Structures are given as structure tokens and as C-alpha cells.
């Protein structure tokens, strides 16, 4: 009996202990698991912010990119002699955005600006600001700028700006991203800014950025860093073979010709691979065979879409030559800046026209001329190869937009009901809509017939332009004028000469 009483007592004691300690144990276990979970969450370690002086480069280590360098020289001058500009009341560009495809030298340019101006260089990738917890990214940006101001004059370089600067959607719920972007905007805006801190940023996609970043006083200067053309590739290859022993059989011009579409990073890689291969085969100098090997190796590893075949290049060259030729014939050479078959973005080649002046009013004839020029790319392909390709897709999109606006918005149709005043779509009868659609199609068809006739009539000139493009990849305004010197412009159809257009004709 006493034994039974004892067992019950022990059980009771155990129960008392459990009641007292179990909740405490559970709380401790819970805290432990929470701590483990938080420490395992993905996050980048906060980095110590310090200037980078080891990897800076000088202007002459950057080949090509002359336009971008010219833009940036101004910043260098300002950082070197701020008083000179302050006396004149000049405001320095505070934020400059370098945009273009990967590996084309954006980081390199930022480093050169720091080196040439003697400014401290702070570089950080925007992806290191992206954090899970609200406020952490913003804090890092604040710290980066605080440190840069202490070291002024300084360059703050933010790579991959899209990581924080992607356009916010209207009902964005990402508070952390918003706070980070807002902090960056605050640093760029007046209150805390030191004029001797210049912010450079790099992005592959200008169109994906939040418009707030591109407003005046922020990244209001945008510098295109484009894929190099033939001359650019040759120069880059020279830079990267400067310190390498090259055999007499190596012709860098030929290597440049074979690497259309590649950027500086790829070309550097080719030079390096060729040197490694020469080393492995026990040679004293790098030979043409090593370059061939490196080329094959690098090109095979790249996405094929970045490299055009010879056949594709010919199609693009005739297509762009068509745009340039018809632009000239219709009196548009004043606006042509360059025509190129170096790919940019989705475009395999393009004609860049800049308007001579801002235009608000355009005549019917000018709009028709523009449509004719847009369709001249396809017309040139038909005249030369007897078939059409997919390369005119974006041209056709714009032709449709212009022709539609002419009929539906500006009342430029030829029949009366197509000419009567603009009406919103729902207010139109089916018959009027059909009529206007037919008018729209007629405008495009007539312009296309005209483009075809012009390309046919001036076939020799078309050929000249295309051959020059295939040879040199990029032709500027003076080149085109020279090549078409004996081709008279067509008598004006009553339109003012020159069509205001800032967007390139893609193919
Ligand atoms: P990403 O958009 O991927 O950051 P990026 O445009 O910043 O690329 P960089 O980092 O500047 O490209 O270039 C990578 C490497 O490519 C450089 O270190 C350099 O060796 C080479 N390179 C690129 N462009 C040039 C150029 N114009 N002249 C000489 N070398 C170049």
C-alpha cells in the first residue's frame, strides 16, 4: 500500500514539473526555430563601403565608343576644375545613365571617368540593395552616398540599375523595392546632394526603368553604349592584344570581320583564349590558327541569335540600304545620321534619323513619304532577292500606325466619308469603318508600289549602298551623300523637305 501511495506522489510531482517547464521549453524551441529560419533566409551580406582604386582604367584602354567618351569628358572636366564651371553658374550633370547590351564597356567607362578625374570610385551593383526586409536596401543606399560624400569628389557607379529601378506597377505591393528606389531618388535630388558626387549607372534596358529615375535632375543624361561596329571591333582587338606577342600571320582586321555582333567582353575573351591555346601548344607567339580556334570556341558558346550568318547580313544590308536610298530620293538626307547593320536590341540593323527641328504639324505628303521610306526596306529585299523576309516586322507596325492615324484621326482619306471629322470608333457605322480600313490599306499599298519602283529604278545605287554597308557595317551621313552623289532627289511632291522623325527604322 505505501508503495502505491509513493508511485502516485512521484507521478504528481512529474506532472507539476511538466506543467511549470513545458511552456518554457516550448517557447525556447520556438525561438530557436525562428532564429534558424531568419538566418537561413536569402540575403546579401552588408558590404563595407570603400572606394575601389585598383581596377581603374584610362581612356586609351577603352577602344571605340567615341561619342560616349565625349559625353563623359565633360564630367571629368567638371570634377577636375569645379570652380571654372561654378563661376559660370553651370550645373553639373548629376546622374548619367549608360545603357546598352551587356559587355560593351559601361563599367569600363565609369572607371575611366573616375581615373581621369582623380575622383574616388564607389561601385555597387543595384542587386545588392535588394533585400527582404523593408528599409535595409534604403539604408545601404544612404550609407553608400554618405561615404561617397565624405570622399568627394567621387563617382558612385550603380550597375544593373534595373534591379531597383524597374518601373513600379500602379498597385505595387513591394514596399521594400519602393523604399529603396525612393531613397535613391532622394540621394539624387537636391537636399542631400553634393555637386562633387556624380552618379553613373548602367542598365541593359532603358525602357524597363521607372520614369521617375529619368526626370530632369536625376538620370537626365542617357548615353548609349552600343555594340561596336567593324572599326570599333578592330580597335578593341588591338587594345586587348597590346601586351600579347602576335605572330605575323595574324590579321586582326579579319578577326574583326568575323565577329560581327560581338561586344568588347567577347572580344577580350577571344584574345585571351587564343593566348591560352598558344601557351598550351608551346608557341612563343599567338598565331592565326589560335585565333581561329578561339573564335570557334567562343562563337559556339554564344547564343546563335547574336551572330548573323553571311546570308542574313546581306538581307539586312539591302533592307537598310533601301531605307537610306528612298530617304535620299524623297529629300530626307538632311536628317539621316547613320545607317548600320550592327544589331541593336531586337533590331538587326537600323537607319537613325534625327529631326532638324521639332515639328508639330505634318502634311499628308510628308506622312506618305515616311510610309514609303518605311516600306523601302522590304521593297529593296524584293527587288534584290525576289522574296520577302521577317525583317520588316517593326516597319510594318509603324506603317499601320501612321496610315491608321492619317485616316481615323486626321481625316486624310480621299473619299468624303473618310475625310469627315474624326469620330471615336464606337460612333462609326460598320460601313464607314470598312471604308476607312480600305483607305488605310490603299495609302500603304500605293506607298509600297512607289518604294518598289524607286528601288527598281535606282538599283545600281541600292547595290552601292548595300555593298558599302557589308564592307563597313556603318555609314554616316557624309558616306551616304558621297555614295549617292549622282542620284538626284525626286522632285518634291509638294511636301516640305525633311520629315521629323527621331526613331530609327529597324529591320
Ligand atoms: P554589363 O552590362 O554586363 O555590366 P558592361 O557593359 O559594364 O557589361 P564592361 O564590364 O565594361 O561591360 O566590359 C567587360 C570587359 O569587356 C571589360 O573588362 C573589357 O575587357 C572588355 N571591353 C568591353 N568594351 C570594351 C571597349 N570598348 N574597349 C576595350 N575593352 C572593352
Descriptive overview:
The protein is an alpha/beta fold. The chain folds into four domains: 11-41; 59-224, P-loop containing nucleotide triphosphate hydrolases (Rossmann fold, 3-Layer(aba) Sandwich); 230-300, Orthogonal Bundle (Helicase, Ruva Protein, domain 3); 310-506, Peptidase M41 (Methane Monooxygenase Hydroxylase, Chain G, domain 1, Up-down Bundle). The chain is 52% helix and 8% strand. It has helices at residues 2-40, 66-80, 82-87, 106-117, 136-150, 162-165, 175-188, 230-241, 252-257, 264-280, 288-301, 310-329, 364-385, 393-409, 416-419, 430-457, 459-472, 477-483; strands spanning 95-99, 120-125, 154-159, 197-203, 221-224, 336-340, 350-353, 474-476, 505-506. The strands form two sheets. It has a five-stranded parallel sheet with strand order 2-3-4-1-5, sandwiched between helices. The chain has a four-stranded antiparallel sheet with strand order 8-6-7-9. Strand 2 (120-125), helix 5 and strand 3 form a beta-alpha-beta unit. The longest helix has 39 residues, at 2-40. The N and C termini lie far apart (102 Å). The relative contact order is 0.09. It binds adenosine-5'-triphosphate (ATP). Adenosine-5'-triphosphate binds next to helix 4, helix 8 and helix 10.
Amino acid at each position: 500500500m505505501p508503495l502505491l501511495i509513493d508511485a502516485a506522489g512521484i507521478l504528481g510531482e512529474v506532472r507539476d514539473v511538466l506543467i511549470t517547464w513545458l511552456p518554457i521549453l516550448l517557447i525556447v524551441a520556438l525561438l530557436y526555430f525562428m532564429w534558424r529560419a531568419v538566418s537561413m533566409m536569402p540575403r546579401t551580406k552588408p558590404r563595407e563601403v570603400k572606394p575601389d582604386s585598383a581596377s581603374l582604367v584610362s581612356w586609351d584602354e577603352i577602344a571605340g565608343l567615341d561619342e560616349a567618351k565625349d559625353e563623359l569628358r565633360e564630367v571629368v572636366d567638371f570634377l577636375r576644375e569645379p570652380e571654372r564651371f561654378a563661376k559660370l553658374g553651370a550645373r553639373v550633370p548629376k546622374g548619367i545613365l549608360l545603357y546598352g547590351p551587356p559587355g560593351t564597356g559601361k563599367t569600363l567607362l565609369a572607371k575611366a571617368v573616375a581615373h581621369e578625374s582623380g575622383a574616388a570610385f564607389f561601385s555597387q551593383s543595384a542587386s545588392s540593395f535588394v533585400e527582404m526586409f523593408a528599409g535595409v536596401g534604403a539604408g545601404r543606399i544612404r550609407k553608400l552616398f554618405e561615404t561617397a560624400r565624405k570622399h568627394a569628389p567621387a563617382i558612385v557607379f550603380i550597375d544593373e540599375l534595373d534591379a531597383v529601378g524597374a518601373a513600379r506597377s500602379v498597385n505595387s505591393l513591394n514596399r521594400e523595392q519602393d523604399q529603396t528606389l525612393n531613397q535613391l531618388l532622394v540621394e539624387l535630388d537636391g537636399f542631400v546632394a553634393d555637386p562633387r558626387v556624380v552618379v553613373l549607372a548602367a542598365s541593359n534596358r532603358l525602357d524597363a526603368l521607372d520614369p521617375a529615375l529619368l526626370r530632369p535632375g536625376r538620370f537626365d543624361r542617357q548615353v548609349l553604349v552600343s555594340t561596336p561596329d567593324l572599326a570599333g571591333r578592330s580597335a578593341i582587338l588591338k587594345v586587348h592584344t597590346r601586351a600579347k606577342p602576335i605572330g605575323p600571320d595574324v590579321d586582326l582586321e579579319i578577326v574583326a570581320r568575323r565577329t560581327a555582333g560581338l561586344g568588347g567582353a567577347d572580344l577580350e575573351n577571344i584574345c585571351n583564349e587564343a593566348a591560352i591555346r598558344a601557351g598550351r601548344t608551346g608557341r612563343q607567339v599567338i598565331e592565326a590558327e589560335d585565333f581561329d580556334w578561339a573564335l570557334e570556341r567562343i562563337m559556339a558558346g554564344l547564343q546563335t541569335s547574336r551572330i548573323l550568318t553571311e546570308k542574313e547580313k546581306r538581307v539586312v544590308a539591302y533592307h537598310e540600304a533601301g531605307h537610306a536610298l528612298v530617304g535620299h530620293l524623297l529629300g530626307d538626307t538632311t536628317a539621316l545620321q547613320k545607317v548600320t547593320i550592327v544589331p541593336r536590341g531586337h533590331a538587326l540593323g537600323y537607319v537613325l534619323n534625327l529631326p532638324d527641328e521639332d515639328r508639330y504639324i505634318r502634311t499628308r505628303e510628308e506622312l506618305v513619304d515616311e510610309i514609303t521610306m518605311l516600306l523601302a526596306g522590304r521593297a529593296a529585299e524584293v527587288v534584290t532577292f525576289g522574296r520577302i523576309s521577317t525583317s520588316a516586322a517593326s516597319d510594318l507596325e509603324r506603317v499601320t500606325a501612321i496610315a491608321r492615324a492619317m485616316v481615323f484621326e486626321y481625316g486624310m482619306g480621299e473619299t468624303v466619308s473618310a475625310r469627315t471629322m474624326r469620330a471615336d470608333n464606337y460612333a462609326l457605322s460598320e460601313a464607314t469603318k470598312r471604308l476607312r480600313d480600305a483607305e488605310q490599306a490603299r495609302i500603304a499599298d500605293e506607298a509600297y508600289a512607289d518604294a518598289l519602283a524607286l528601288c527598281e529604278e535606282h538599283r545600281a545605287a541600292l547595290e552601292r549602298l548595300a555593298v558599302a554597308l557589308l564592307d563597313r557595317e556603318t555609314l554616316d551621313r557624309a558616306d551616304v551623300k558621297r555614295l549617292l552623289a549622282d542620284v538626284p532627289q525626286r522632285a518634291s511632291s509638294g511636301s516640305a523637305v525633311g520629315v521629323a522623325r527621331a526613331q530609327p527604322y529597324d529591320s
